[in-house]
Amino acid sequence: MALITVSGIEKSFEQDRVVLQDVSFQVDTGERVAILGDNGAGKTTLLRILCGELQPDKGSVSIAKGSRIGYVRQMNTLSTGELVEDVLKAAYRVAIEKGKELEQLHDRMETVSAARYDEVLRSFEAAGGYDWQAEYARIANGLNIPPEMRSRRFDSLSGGEQTRVNLARMIMEKTDILLLDEPTNHLDVESMEWLEDYLLHYRGTVLMVSHDRYFLDAAAQRIIEIKHGKTEFYSGNYSYYVQEKELRFQQQLLRYNQEQAKVKQLEFQIARLKAWGSVYDNPALHKKAAAMEKRVERVQQTDKPVKESRMQANFASESFRADRVLTAEHLSKAFDGREIIHDFTAYIRGGGERVALIGPNGVGKSTLLKMLLGLLPADSGTVKTGPSVKCAYLPQQVVFEHPERTLYDTMLYETDCTPQEARDRLGAFRFTGEDQFKTVSQLSGGERSRLRLCILMMSRVNFLVLDEPTNHLDLSSREWIEEAVDAFEGTLLFVSHDRYFTRRFANHIWELGEGFTDYPDCDWERYRRIKALNRQNAGKEKQEKKEKTEKEMPRERETAADKRSSGRNPAQERKMKALEKEIEKQEEELAAYDEKMEEAASDYILLQQLTAEKEELQARINEMYAKWEELSM
Predict the structure, then answer these.
(1) Suppose 150 and one of 85, 87, 620, 633 were both cysteines; which one would form an S-S bond, judging by CB atoms 3.0 to 4.6 Å apart?
(2) Beta partners for 178?
(3) What pLDDT, on the 0 to 100 scale, is given for residue 323?
(4) Counting beta carbons within 10 angstroms of the beta carbon of residue 553, is it exposed (0 to 12), middle (13 to 18) or buried (19 or more)?
(5) Which helix (H) or strand (E) holds 8?
(6) CA distances (Å), 18 to each of 8, 22, 48, 228, 469, in order?
(7) Which residues make beta-bridge pairs with 349?
(8) When comparing pLDDT for 23 and 471, which is higher?
(9) What pTM was computed for the model?
(10) Mean pLDDT computed over 269-289
């Protein structure tokens, strides 16, 4: 069943610059569709049209009646002084209000009619009143929104944190259609995996814009590519899209070459007929040549396929002669009394080792990189680099000292190259024509990263340090930087949440979290297998401990029905019945915590939080039992 129908959409923002042109497609209920395209292709524009924020110049959008749409923007525009907790709990407004009303009815049960009580109870249950708190905690924890963040004002959060909160809020609201614009930006690996799992089980419809290829492989069922304002369709995930796109290119190229060969043959025959017609003064031959010229027009139906120009540049490598590139011993760093890095000791070998520094957001990965490079002083510890090490560093946020300069002038000043070398180098990085005379301040985040790489690659280095190198880059730019890094013969240290990038390059992993774990000679796939095995072993130990406890301390609890007597008034009976039902729901929720805690066995912070929540829930259940016993007496 078609949930979304788009017919002939066109949209322009400037004269002679069409962003979307005759875009038509439909999305069925329950589909997960990815929208791909280069930066500026119109992906975000299409999402804004679908949710009604923008009106198309032509065409129409039809959404099934009654469908609720949730839109998570790439850049948050919501500004509010509310606490994060209040922003999130707004999704459960009805359940919370009905819960308060139910409590008020409990307190004056003797004067409330059974019909009124049952009506509120049904509304409470329909709004998910018994389940919303567990769901709230599950979604917030899954997207790494801890209690500390929930107690802060929403407008005090960073842009990435605000986006994460909005994503959680949209999921909590259980919309029928989720529009997601770069949803994995600002998420760590565990949060990405949680989101992927959620979307795989989500019963609604999802349209997502993303440059995260790992995410697209896991979450997308089909792909709509926007190219030059028009759309092409692929019925599979990202890996299928890559293969199918290349196959279509080759097929179109084959048709084009066959047509051109036919055209060349016809043109030769036409020229010969015209020559004979002139020599022998034969109008019939001229007429036949004219007919064949029309046939040429009919033959030429396929446009020549063109692949987008790729950036043609590699890192200039300097040879390295030593066993170790870098050695760090007992590094520590604290901010405002909070220790970020504690007693960090590790080393990086020469010979092309490629180290991925991974861990959740906020654990100090970028801080550690800056300490290793000497850009940030350590509170204690030492860092030593090999005598022939020459390092290049690409930070997460690229800043130029003179943003008022043009790209061309920046190249001249920062690399001491000739004017022609500057033009050629910028052109190799897809800064062509008038773009070279833009000021640096006019560039997007991805373009600034590309310019910094353009400068870095001109210096001969043997140690490359990258902090989130694929951030802000579209798919073609990500593929290019991977090819450039792949050709780099030196040693690599990088921070990245791009699992596709990490899987391709890492052969040694440093994990920061609750402490530091070193995984030498370990790629991404092996690291994930080790983590899964650790979780499995921790779960077995927990289950064995639980079974042992149950055998040693058997606990039997009488049901509420066994304790009920027949001598109570109807108001008491209704109140006890409501309590029994609520106790049953809460105990189901309590049992679910065992599975959650098993899954979080390797996450110490989350495990602590779940343990606290479980104890709090157990305390509430005990209070309800005490209240029930009081009523029963």
Answers:
(1) 85
(2) 70, 206
(3) 81
(4) exposed
(5) strand 2-14
(6) 13, 10, 16, 8, 31
(7) 324
(8) 23
(9) 0.73
(10) 88
Residue 406 confidence (pLDDT): 95
d(CA 429, CA 426) in angstroms, rounded, equals 5
Tokens in use for 101?
A: 């009303």
Closest CA to 273 of 262, 290, 282, 285: 285
* 236 Cα distance to chain centroid: 19
Q: How far apart are CA 589 and CA 566, in angstroms?
A: 30
CA gap 24, 9 in Å, rounded: 7
Q: Do 505 and 352 touch, CB atoms closer than 8 A?
A: no
**CA-to-CA distance for 346 and 511, rounded, in angstroms?**
11
Q: CA-CA distance, 536 to 514, in Å (whole number)?
A: 19
Helix (H, G, I), strand (E, B) or coil at 182: coil
Residue ranges of alpha helices (H) inside 202-282 are 213-219, 238-279
Tell me phi and psi for residue 335, to 5 degrees: -125, 125
pLDDT at 557 over 50: no
DSSP reduced 3-state for 467: strand
Q: In what order do the strands lie in the sheet with 338-349?
A: 338-349, 324-335, 380-385
pLDDT > 90: what percent of the chain? 35
Residue with tokens 């092409």: 232
Using DSSP, state whether 118 is helix, strand or coil: helix
Q: Considering only the C-alpha atoms of the chain, give the largest distance between any 2 of them, rounded to a whole number of Å.
A: 123
Residue-level pLDDT at 299: 82
Q: Which of 531, 475, 524 is nearest to 502 (CA)?
A: 524
Answer whether 195's CB lies under 8 Å from 184's CB.
Answer: yes
Q: What are the E-state strand segments in 38-166?
A: 58-63, 69-72
User: Could you tell me if residue 473 is left (phi over 0), alpha (psi between -120 and 50 degrees) or otherwise beta?
Assistant: beta
Quick one: which of 33, 24, 26 has its CA closest to 1?
Answer: 26
Q: What integer pLDDT is reported at residue 222 of this predicted model? A: 95
Instruction: Return the residue matching tokens 């070193």.
Output: 518
Tokens 């769901």 sit at which residue?
Answer: 135
- The tens digit of pLDDT for each residue in 54-73 reads 999 999 999 999 899 989 88
Intra-chain end-to-end CA distance of the chain, in Å: 57
Q: Answer for the pair 68, 175: CB distance below 8 angstroms, yes or no.
A: yes
The span from the CA of 55 to the CA of 40, in Å, is 18
Backbone angles phi, psi at 43, to 5 degrees: -65, -50
